[in-house]
Amino acid sequence: MSSFVNLERLSMDDPSTPDAMDIRLDARHPAFREDPHAILDDLRARCPVHQDSVLDRVVLTRADDVAAVLADRTLSSDPFKGRPTTYGRAGLTDADRPDLPLPFLDDPDHARLRRLVVQAFSVRAVEALRPRIEAIAATLLDRIDPTRPFDLIADYAVPLPTLVIAIMLGIDDAEIEQFKAWSDAVLIGYAPGRTEAEVRDRNAANDGLNDCIRRAIVERRREPRDDLIGALTAAEAQGERLSDIEILNTCRTLLVAGNVTTTDLIGNGSVALLRHPEQAARLRADPGLWPAAIEEMLRYDPPVVSWNRQCIDDRLIDGCPVEAGQTVTAMLLAANHDPALHAAPHDFDIGRDRQKHHSFGGGAHFCLGASLARLEAQVALSALFDGFKQLRLAPGHDLHRKAIPRFGGYETVWLTAV
């Protein structure tokens, strides 16, 4: 029996408003941001393959369907394969096409670039960063006044991955503060509700970042160095090498995507532990549980809540029609909380027997930076909770999610350590 039903009048705040359910399936709607599970659980139970008429897409909420779509290489990652009205394509112009980063490329371009880039993200290369990440975490924590409330996001979760990426890229020490300022301006300038001044700052920061990275590429080609840009300029596979624009796009992807997701993993993981103090106590008693704790954080409250593929032909998904050019949105958050995948899926349990999740995507596009994100989060969170024994959420500061589609982090996380 097909699971396709009309949900336009299911779980609506105002049944007289058409397509209210569809409007709520996006982070820009406060109901979805603040309590997504109430919506996604209902959707998974009653219509796991849902036609979202407002955003012109099909939404998947079951773990099996999400896993199948992420692994399906007959679906496209290129947003320009979608029709202009569909969710994955809307808002893009032809000017964006030449700058598509690795996660949005299809084979053979994706396979060629990934072969070259993956060499710079080996387990050995990432693990070699541990002492530098530990030093960055210690420096940032030393700057925090434990006698006053502080914003974990602004004071710790944002600067840590930015500084790690600057070190990875080989940005000179004298330029790191400017690099961080550019990075902050770029991220702020893409946020919903941005001002005209913030957009101007973003554009100027983009120019500054691009010039900085281009200079570094030229320098590494002339005089190789042991850093990420040096590794990318030297990378070779099957007689092919990366072009300068491919290196630039790879570095920018790491900067923007890596910054946002790692920041949100640190923020979301901290909130999960503080709301479940018995789990934090287990970690303090047995630090060997940290790797398992990071996996549970990724499952329970992932930084990326959904990912898109574009359908390039008419087909059925679980008996439900999907048109060529439509976006298929895999709800990673819903899949991670599918009762068919995990018992008591809404419980936060770092000792969970099965730690499977879809938070790094899947298939050929599995996140290249997964090992780095895990390492940064483990170092950052273990240092935070070891350094502040009385850490708790600060009274009088509500938690609100960012209104950014596909991302699930908090705007601020105010903490107190006394």
From TrEMBL:
Pfam families: p450. Keywords: Heme, Iron, Metal-binding, Monooxygenase, Oxidoreductase. SUPFAM superfamilies: Cytochrome P450 (SSF48264). The keyword Metal-binding applies. The keyword Iron applies. One of its GO terms (molecular function) is heme binding. InterPro entries: Cyt_P450, Cyt_P450_B, Cyt_P450_CS, Cyt_P450_sf. Its cofactor is heme. PROSITE patterns: CYTOCHROME_P450. Cytochromes P450 are a group of heme-thiolate monooxygenases. They oxidize a variety of structurally unrelated compounds, including steroids, fatty acids, and xenobiotics. Belongs to the cytochrome P450 family. This is Cytochrome P-450 like protein. It comes from Methylobacterium tardum.
